[in-house]
Amino acid sequence: MKGTRVICILNLLTIIGWGSIGLILSSEILFAITKVIPFRFSTIGLGILAFSIAFCGYDVIHKFQSYAYIPSLISIIIVLVELGKDGSFTVSVPKNLNKAEAILKFAASIMGASIGWTPMAADYNIMRPADTQQAPIFFLTYFSLILSVAASEAVGAACGTVVFKSSHYADSYKLGNIAGLLDDLLQPLGDIGKKVTFVLFLFTAMSSSILSKYSTGFAIQALGNRALLIPRWLWTIVGSAMVTGVALIGANSFNKVLTNLLGIASYWMSIYTCIVLEEHIIFRSRYGYKLDDWNTPSRLPVGIAAGVSSIVGVIGAVLGMQQPWFTGPIAKLIGSPGGDIGFELSAM
């Protein structure tokens, strides 16, 4: 049981990190709309708004998310259209570019963005009726993630292309991160059109923060029986405060926070996902689960196999990781500055 606390802590840190990133981006978008609201005020205000929705519980969150994807999708289409009209969208790849490093880094970011739902999905699927078939739950969850991640990553890749090619857009990105770049890209829409698009984008950024604030309560209670003695709504307040606090602290180093979180999250969650899949498919496929034993340690596996597998996975991640602060020996073999294969090796 003690080993599971390590996973719970990593999950909690990842949830807080993703929630703070969504809150930072929301605050930057709000500043791009108004040009007057200070970042700290907007972060606190949007943090309270996200908490208010999360605090209302699953039904309200489900209703919000049922409609929030519409403005998100519209904003993505608008940005892609503007990028397509801009001559900076297509770019020839320089001969001296380490293609393998670039592809692996982008793959790691996609992995970190999508696999992050693995430990959180049950927070929402658990609300389905007990007689719900497994296949619909799996396919609906899987394809929802595929479509949403593909859409957001497509915009990210396109924006990265224009930043790579245009020094003008690169300067906009350096000054204002994603919101600054979008503010420049959407100039052809005029002031009103640009603000409307930013408002639509705000739904995208806020959604991740709302879900993170809701899931922190579950993540904290999973730490042990003592945490279960405190009502989850109190933990939601604590978790929301942590998300907002991290957003206020990490705003000045948004890009570094995002890059580090994506990479590190993909490493540990690759290990976790592989262990869970093996347990479910290989060892539990015939006998299923005794759900009544979930909180009785004497009836649960000791966890030696999972623990050893995790240690081996960590070694693989260290050997293959490529981060600004460390590059593993195997990653160094893939050109300069190295190719990030941390999540592949950790999964193996």
Automatic annotation (TrEMBL):
Spans through the membrane: 12-33, 39-60, 67-83, 138-164, 192-212, 233-251, 257-277, 298-319
Gene3D superfamilies named among the record's database cross-references: Hydantoin permease
Record key words, sorted: Membrane, Transmembrane, Transmembrane helix, Transport
GO MF annotations, alphabetized: transmembrane transporter activity
Entry's Gene Ontology cellular component terms: fungal-type vacuole membrane; plasma membrane
Identification of the protein by name: Purine-cytosine permease fcyB
Organism placement in taxonomy: Eukaryota, Fungi, Dikarya, Ascomycota, Taphrinomycotina
